[in-house]
Structure formats: C-alpha cells, structure tokens
Design a protein that fits this description.
With 361 residues, the chain is mostly helical. The chain contains 18 helices and no strands.
C-alpha cells in the first residue's frame, strides 16, 4: 500500500488528476455499453446517453493531450519519428491483440476487425501531423531565410480548416463525427485557454457566470439529445445523413456532444483535487480499451447469459461490468510484467523496450 501511495504521489507530479479521472469515467462508460444486451429494458435510453458523450469526450481529451507533441513537428525527421511513435502506440497493439484473439478463437477476421477506435485515433493524429508538417514547410518557403518561425495567423487557420475538411473527405463512416471535438481540445491546450478557465473556477465573482454556462449547456444537451435520439454515429454517420438530406441530425449530435463536454470537464476540474487509484487507471485507458474488448470476444461471448428484462437484468450487467473491469486491470498487469507483451499489446513503444534493456545491463 505504501508503494502504491508513493507511486500515486509520483504520478501526481507528472499528470493531471482531472484528465485521468475523465478518461477513467469515459472508459467505464465504454465498458458498461459493451456489457448490456440490446433487448434489455431501458437500454435504448442508457445506450443513447452513453453514445452521445463517451467517444466525444475521449476525442476532446485526445486533442488536448496530443497538442504538445503535435506542435513539436517542425521538420521531416520529427514528423517521421512521430508517425512511427503513434503507429507503435496505437496500431501495433490493435493488430497484435487481434492476432492473439484470432489464435484463441480460430477466427482470422479478428486480426483486422478489432479496436476501431484506436485505428480511427491513429488516422486523426496522422492527418493532423501531416497537415501541421505541410504548414511548417510552407512557412519555411515563405520566409526568405528558409527558417520556420511561428506560423502566421492565416496559415494556422488554414491548417485547421484543411484538417477538418480531410476528416470529412477521407471517410464515409465514423471519421467526420469527432473532428471538431479533437480540434477544440487541441486549441484549448495549445493556447492554454483551459488553464485560464480553470483559474476562474476558484473566483467567487465568476461562479454565477460559470453556473449560467453550465445550465445553458444542460438545456442544450437535453434538447439536442431528444432531437437526435435514435440516430447514433455508428448506424447513421455524417455521409449517410447527408445522402438522406438529414444533416441537421449531425448538427444536433455535435451540439449535444459539446454540451456534455461543457458539463463534464468543469466538474472533473473542480472536484478532482487529488491523484487517486481511479486516476491511475484512467492513465491506462488505452490498455483498458484493448484488454476489455479482448476479454469480451474471447471469454464472455462464449457464454449464453440470460438477462431478465427487469432490474435483475441490469444487476447482472453491473456485475459483469465490474468483473470485466477488474479482469482487464489484471490482464494489463500481466502484460506489463514482460517488456515484449507490454510493447506488443499495450502500445508501450520503444521506450518500454529501451527502459527494460537499460535495467538488464
């Protein structure tokens, strides 16, 4: 216990508790959404609520946490190093855990069908890094001395617009849904706007304004959620709505997602004052996402679970969610115990291999 407390203290000096708490909250919502059957009473409402905020919150946080590393891409070498890094962090574990699942279930299709979110996040980071590198190169050519200084405002705005357009053009499925959440998180971090908002939370004079914003966001979230109820991004992505002349549903979903972010993020910032065990596991949300889907497809789907269509059914769902979360945590610890499994299945990157190799010298 003392060792864990010491580790949490160490983590607190390096990470933001509210950020990891928000990740863990979103991750638990994802795990819950994967545990209930589609015909259980109330599942449409619960599922509709979760789908309206969990991945939106994740992509907002992804934009926020990746801003610093994306801003460091100023030449080809740094760009290429970043692409390799995110490929090892996101793509490698996605396909590695899929291969392991295929080996266990004897289903070769599992190699390519798993971890859609990780692959989507990789494409977001790849496209933004590419747009950022192109902007830096263009800035060098515009400068007479050939040195890439700070980007002019017009070029910064251009790269943001280009990124958003590419997200809509490059995919007919889920990709367009999260572009604005990612971009908002990125801009708030880049310009340190969220830090300014956070500091105002402690001022009594600003509390009425913040409360008014929260209430407005609440009403907007409720209103738009009802408007887009039954139109989730899995079944009705942007282009499907566009072809049916129902793009207004996409607009409602975007407003609803931002409403949730405005509601939830300030609450985490206000009440997350200490780095806890909950925060610690939030820092491992990538591993939890990978391991819980692996356990579902290799273990849980082998059982024919009967869910009574009442409160007993939801009790079973909650119990499975808790057990699945604990099992995922144990599997993460198992993978972390070996540098190669950590590298392959948890996206530890070359840092894990190099760190362990250094210890063994």
């Amino acid at each position: 216990m003392q060792k864990m407390n010491g580790y949490l203290t160490q983590m607190a000096s390096k990470r933001l508790s509210w950020l990891d708490d928000a990740k863990m909250f979103a991750m638990l919502s994802v795990i819950l959404s994967h545990c209930y059957p589609i015909n259980l009473i109330g599942v449409d409402t619960v599922g509709g609520i979760i789908v309206s905020f969990n991945m939106q919150l994740f992509m907002f946080l992804a934009g926020y946490t990746s801003a610093k590393s994306l801003e460091c891409i100023s030449d080809w070498n740094l760009y290429w190093h970043y692409i390799v890094k995110i490929a090892l962090h996101l793509l490698l574990p996605s396909y590695a855990i899929g291969a392991l699942q295929a080996l266990i279930t004897l289903d070769p299709a599992a190699i390519s069908n798993e971890q859609w979110f990780l692959k989507m996040l990789f494409r977001y980071l790849l496209v933004f890094a590419s747009v950022n590198w192109l902007a830096m190169e263009l800035n060098k050519r515009l400068n007479k001395d050939g040195i890439s200084g700070p980007l002019p405002l017009w070029l910064s705005i251009f790269r943001y617009i280009l990124f958003a357009v590419l997200m809509f053009v490059l995919s007919k499925t889920k990709l367009p849904e999260f572009a604005f959440y990612f971009l908002t998180g990125y801009l708030l971090k880049k310009h340190k706007l969220l830090e300014s908002i956070v500091s105002s939370f402690n001022s009594r004079s600003s509390m009425p304004i913040m409360l008014s914003i929260q209430i407005t966001a609440l009403f907007l979230t409720i209103f738009t959620w009802h408007k887009c109820y039954g139109y989730n991004f899995y079944d009705e992505p942007f282009w499907a709505l566009f072809e049916k002349n129902e793009t207004i549903i996409f607009v409602y979903r975007q407003i609803c997602g931002f409403g949730w972010i405005i509601l939830l993020v300030p609450l985490f910032i206000l009440f997350s004052k200490k780095y806890t065990l909950f925060s610690y596991w939030g820092s491992k949300s990538l591993g939890l996402y990978i391991t819980h889907t692996f356990i579902i497809h290799t273990v849980i789907e082998r059982f024919d679970i009967v869910y009574p269509n009442d409160w007993r059914g939801w009790s079973i769902v909650i119990a499975i969610t808790i057990l699945l979360t604990i099992a995922s945590m144990l599997l993460i610890k198992l993978f972390e115990s070996n540098r190669y499994t950590h590298f392959l299945f948890l996206g530890g990157g070359m840092e894990v291999l190099n760190k362990e190799a250094g210890r063994n010298k």
